[in-house]
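Lab manual, section 2.4: Encoding a predicted structure.

Procedure: take the sequence of the chain (414 residues), apply the prediction step described in section 2.3, and record the output as structure tokens. A sample record is shown.
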Amino acid sequence: MARNELYTGLDIGSSTIRVVVGQRHPTDEGLQILGAAEGPAEGISKGTITSIEDAVSSISATLEKVERMTGVPVEHAAVSINGVHVVSQDSHGIVAVAKADGEIKQNDVDRVIEAAQSVATPPNYEILHVVPRSFTVDNQHGVKDPIGMSGMRLEVDAQVIQGLTAQIKNLQKAVYRTKVDIDDMVLAVLASSLACVSKRQKELGVAVVNIGSSTTSLMVFEEGDVMHTKILPVGASHITNDIAIGLRISIDLAEKVKLEYGTALPDDVQKRDDVNLGDVGGEAAMVSRRHIAEIIQARVEEIFSMVDRELQHVDRSGLLPAGIILTGGGAKLPGLTDVGKKEFRLPVGIGWPQGYTSAVDKIQDPAFTTALGLASWTAETHEGGPSFTKNIPGTSAVTDTVENIRRWVKGFIP
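Recorded output:
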């Protein structure tokens, strides 16, 4: 099988590493997933690397699992980046159209995107993505694709997503030491949106909320474009911590209780419905299931109110016609959509992977949307660029430094 036929997504999360390998389905547009694997993440906290050695062994172990499944070594992958260090800001670029006859060419679009990149980047930060929102040709606003149009001046409004240089480099080193080349580094919630949100939803206006282990990422789309991005330092592990404190039990036991008996809706639980902790591996003791639900509900409401505050910042609180899509491993908690509808005053649904075929059942899971989206990103970039950055190269500026780091790291590999 030729190297360019396989597309790999490597999602490096705070608690779990997930990897999927796929190829273009011969008969339709979707990806056919040949293998998917997950494994515990060590050496990673809140989306950032805390120990390169531990991270390398965790990534290697997960890659080995998927290689055994597909029978093909993973040589290159698109890698997710996450963490509260990622920030976004709006930017504006202006250039004069180069050709005397005023016809806008690809070169003009590249130059105006470059102009938008020259924003005041905070110290020690570098640009991950420049996502164009809309172009202006002379005084005509709201142009989606200016190529072939005529005008003297071309402008772009773009969202510039940046990450801490040190964190990006540490992540790159950890991946290169597993002898895997990086196709691209993609913001995790941006990858998720490719896997579980339709083009129509992005046109209407939708917010993707990816609930990870220790972070919750938000990306707001309107008219098909990225409007706002934010990563919050709370996630599903905080719910587990609350249960551990509330019931005075260990973190491991609290996680089992959450997965086995957890719901965010106390009113749905009978008052006399008790749980024996002995059934999930703890010491025999009875606790009220309603009490567990109340603990969960309080934390979920807090996470959702933080997300809603971000929507208020961009004047979209309660105003997104396609509503909120919850995805990521934390989205599977029962009752989450009901709490979300109340908090956001919008339609709320779970983001399941869309448009993938596979004999591997485990990919039908919101937790796998980031890894699947990364594989789709690579496939689309390979064939002309992701839909919302069509014909616009350089949406990931990190690739400029990739070659240097690859050579540097490979110098240490025997």
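Check your result against the sample. The chain is about 35% helix and 30% strand.
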